[in-house]
Amino acid sequence: MKRVVIVLSAYNNEKIIEKCLLSCLKQDYPNLYVVMADDGSTDNTLAVANKLNEKYKNLIVLSLPHGERGIARLKALEEFEKLKGDFLYIIDSDMILEPHLIENCVKYLDKNPDIGALIIPELAFSDYTNFFSKVKVFERNTINNAGEDIGKNSIEAARFWRREEYSKSGGINSNQIAFEETQPTIRYLEIGGKIKRAVFTGVKHDEKMVTLKNILEKKKYYFSVMNKTIESEKSGFLKTLKRWYFFRPVLYRKENLLRYLKQPILFLGLVYMYTILSFIGVFQIIRGIAKKDS
Predict the structure, then answer these.
(1) What is the DSSP string of 19-82?
(2) In this structure, which of 9, 50, 79, 210 has its CB flanked by the most CB atoms within 10 Å?
(3) 6 close to 91: Cβ distance less than 8 angstroms
(4) Which letter does DSSP use for residue 250 in this model?
């Protein structure tokens, strides 16, 4: 039976990491390994994972000093190579897999040998009910409401890969801190690779507590280091521009336009959030270019 390896990095995710890992470990697929790289958590994330490791021998836990997320992911991916996995599934530590997800994805790819990777639809949720938590959930679920086929300007990242096809994509560049997840997908599509959205399954994604302030702070940092991604990708600036907030084709699908009519307040919140982020993003990118040239 083909081997599947799930990899993730984690940092201070003690509230959800057990649910995340158990949703992976309890999949009804026998030849499965889970690799978690802890990025120097200062809470109980590592302790929770180590406790699960005592029961589940197919869980591999790596304890690392705190650094950038990409470095931790790279260490987890190195374990994937050591395990000689046939399929790679890259997740976030705040995701909860649906039952049978792994089995269903493997079956789909076995029946469709021309498909190299799958985007796993995310069902965003939050236990918080403040306005921008609701807006963030609304935004993510709008983006994921996109059908089976993906467009060339999609911002979604394929996460379930055939081993050899992931290699062709060039993989995640650990030096890219911002928007690095989508780059393998973009590269793979450019060389003619085929990717589908796995509409037959899904994963829950906890958006946690979201405020306008923490969205702006988080994105401000990512925009400040975005030049590393733009400069290290062929036509990086053009690719970024095509996927900029209001340019995303998925936002204008008929199904999503109907969503806006049904939830106009959340739609206005999304537009407001995107407008502010666009101003901050442009400012930070220009500032980064100016610093480089000076």
Answers:
(1) HHHHHHHT-S-SSEEEEEEEE--SSSHHHHHHHHHHH-TTEEEEEE-S--HHHHHHHHHHHHHH
(2) 9
(3) yes
(4) G
Dihedral over Cα of 67, 69, 70, 73: its sign: positive
**Pairwise CA distance, residues 138 & 129, whole Å:** 12
Residue type, 202: G
The crossing angle, in degrees rounded to 10, of helices 212-224 and 264-293 is: 30
What φ, ψ does residue 286 adopt, rounded to 5°? Answer: -60, -40
| Nearest CA-CA partner of 61 in 82, 33, 81 | 33
* pTM for the model: 0.90
Strands 4-10 and 87-90: parallel
Per-residue pLDDT tens over the stretch 102-147: 999 999 999 999 999 999 999 999 999 999 999 999 999 998 888 8
* Cα–Cα distance for residue pair 102/186, rounded to 1 Å: 23
Non-local (6+) Cβ contacts of 60 within 8 A are: 33, 34, 35, 36, 53, 79
- How many CB atoms are located within 10 Å of the residue 47 CB? 13
Q: What is the pLDDT of residues 247-281, one digit of tens each?
A: 888 899 999 999 999 999 999 999 999 999 999 98
Among 173, 278, 184, CA closest to 228 = 173
The CA radius of gyration of the chain, in Å to the nearest whole number, is 19
Question: Token match 């049904």: residue?
Answer: 262
Pair 65, 40: CB distance under 8 Å: yes
Helical (H) or strand (E) element with 126: none
